From TrEMBL:
NCBIfam families: S_layer_MJ. Residues 118-442 form the S-layer protein central domain. Residues 34-533 form the S-layer protein outer domain. Pfam families: S_layer_C, S_layer_N. This is S-layer protein. It comes from Methanococcus maripaludis. The lineage of its organism: Archaea, Methanobacteriati, Methanobacteriota, Methanomada group, Methanococci.
Amino acid sequence: MAMSMKKIGAIAVGGAMVASALASGAFAAEKVGDVNAFAADVVADGNANVDIVVGSNAAALDVVSAANIAAKIGSLMFKEGTVEDGAAKVSVSASAESDDYPLYVADVDQPTTTEVAFITSADKDYNDVFEDIFNGTSGDLDYLAIQPLGKLDTLVEIDDIDPSEWNNSNEDNAAEIAYIKATGTTDDDGQYDVLKNDAAYLSLAFNDAKTNYTALRIGNRIPVLGEEYVLVKLDTDDDLVIVGKEVFDGVMKEGESYDLGNGYTVKVDSVLKPISGKDPKVNIKILKDGKVVSEKFDTTQIKMVYGDIGIVVNSAWENVGSDYGYAELVITNNIVTMELGEEFLPDWKAYVVTDEGEFEKDASATGIIGIALQYTGEDEEDLEKDDTFDIADYVTFEFEDDDDDINTLFKMDESKEVSLSIGQKVSVLNAEIKLAEIDAEAKEAVVMTAPIAVLDSEASLDAADKGLILVGGPVVNALTAELADAGLVAIDNESPATLAVAAGAANGNDVLVVAGGDRAATEEAAEALIAML
């Protein structure tokens, strides 16, 4: 049976005064109608004056374009309000589905297999490596019949886990993987069990070619449940994995400080000349309101954790004249601590993963390639069509009813709220967000939400209460097709990048169609609109 790739559903990006990382430069698009007037009216009185609609059958590129438009409009929304230390909260939502698999065929009244394990990841290449690690081994997920279900677009992939390349010149990757094993019998009438230890969420490090795993090192970036973190420390005394959100990555001269806000600063106090043949020693201080609250004086690599602050000093050196020194470091906040062998989430225990396919609760284990959350709750029995099993409260595994057959697949419909400082960049649910600036100066905080990109199945021209931005042509966007059928827009497979206004077409509100003859032309039209806003 052929399997179909399920497309990503929709992405919503919201928050106070946020700008995503968009392509820059001059973009051209054919304009039909008063596009300039529509663009000038997307924000009114500090609030979004439009909704954004993307097609249910849209390509991933259309969804990204819709998210970028939403982020740009969000960056235009501001009112006077209190801003503490230049920070803002941003919400990101996304949905997606993996390939499916025919688990149970009703016509023959028996499962196609009585026991099978399924995986999905951010890229199908990672599935192949995962099978190489765990198939035929004595590891914790040892199972000979692993069935990959392609990729799940909303699982996070990090393309370069060591951007400063202090320890490895290769641009190694990290990616999230979901695993589950369904167990049934030949006479169970389409019922399956998910037993204790038979489901896991994993975040693993891979080589740049995506052909093998690689060692996970301190200072590497790694996804954790949809968000990018820096591995700050593997605490071998208490068996802890400690990660934090990057706020600074670079080189600081001795005597320089980095302001974390709320009165906290990190200072490279001194870099001392090394004894012959040894590394320089670095004195790192964390200060609160000018007073030292934590300090470490050592050779690199230095790992330092104080409260919600984590620091990794990768290397240090003196200038040619030995007048002063430099330290290369990563500074993080929003520290998250995983106690190995203990519940990180209810019914989900944290482990490190080794290159032997083992889940270990020892932070000093050799060959660590990632982290895992393994299901350790009660057996879930007699799961049948329309039942679901949630993996780490993050990915849903569904026993889908397909005309009494059962297809299995992974789904995600996830929302994340992240806090950013000015200039900070984060990756969340495979969207990259950067807080460029905040413009506010009053006594009361003001909460604002950028427009949400919804599916065409969730919107209507007749029921619209504000202007609409439709991303995608009539082939992929049902509302664009309605306008085309009514003769209000003219877009076909040969159309260039086009911005077309249909005046009053959405219950008296104007509609802007952002489309072209193919997905690349639609992306170009979206970039042209963003450049106008």
